[in-house]
Specification:
The protein has 157 residues and is an alpha+beta fold. It is built from 4 helices and 7 strands; from the N terminus they run βαββαββααββ.
C-alpha cells in the first residue's frame, strides 16, 4: 500500500534461526529435498525476526511451487565483509530475462494464465521492501529449465 515497513529489530544469531526455519519447512514440504549450507560460526546481526521469517517463507514457498517434486532446494548463508548473503536456489522451471526484470513488480506474475500457480504477484515485491528496509539488497538469477536463485544481503551492524 506504499506505507513504510516498520521493523522491530533485535540482535540475534542468524544460524539457529535459519536452521529452525528450514527444518520446519522440510517437515511440512517433504515432496522436496532441502540442503542448508551455513558457516560454522555464529552470525550475529540485528533484524526483525517476523519480517525475516516472512522473507524466507516466500522464497522457500516459491522454490517449492516452481520446482518439480523431489528436486533439491539449497539454502546458503555466508559472510561477505560487513554483509551476510543468503540465497535460495531451486532446480525449477526458471524464468526468462524479461521475467527476471519484472519479478519484483507489484502484481507481476510470470504466468498469468488459467493454468498458472496460485498467487497475487505481491510476494516478491513485499520481500524486496522488507530486505531494503533492513538496509539490504536482493537480486534474482534464473535460466529457463535450469532453476532460479534468489539472493539477498543483510548488513551486519
Amino acid at each position: 500500500s506504499g506505507q513504510i515497513i516498520e521493523l522491530h529489530k533485535t540482535q540475534q544469531d542468524l544460524v539457529p534461526v535459519l536452521t529452525l526455519q528450514i527444518s520446519r519447512y522440510q517437515e511440512e514440504r517433504s515432496s522436496h529435498r532441502f540442503r542448508l549450507a551455513l558457516p560454522p560460526d555464529p552470525l550475529s546481526l540485528a533484524f526483525d525476526l517476523d519480517k525475516f521469517t516472512q522473507v524466507m517463507e516466500n522464497l522457500l514457498s516459491n522454490a517449492v511451487k516452481y520446482s518439480p517434486e523431489a528436486s533439491l532446494i539449497q539454502v546458503g548463508c555466508r559472510l561477505c565483509a560487513d554483509l551476510i548473503e543468503i540465497s535460495v536456489q531451486d532446480q525449477g522451471y526458471g524464468m526468462t530475462p524479461a521475467q527476471v526484470v519484472r519479478v519484483f513488480d507489484k502484481f507481476y506474475r510470470g504466468n498469468a494464465s488459467n493454468t498458472a500457480k496460485e498467487g497475487l504477484g505481491l510476494g516478491m515485491s513485499i520481500v524486496k521492501n522488507i530486505v531494503e528496509a533492513h538496509g539490504g539488497e536482493i537480486w534474482v538469477e534464473s535460466e529457463l529449465d535450469r532453476g532460479t536463485t534468489v539472493s539477498f544481503t543483510l548488513p551486519i551492524i
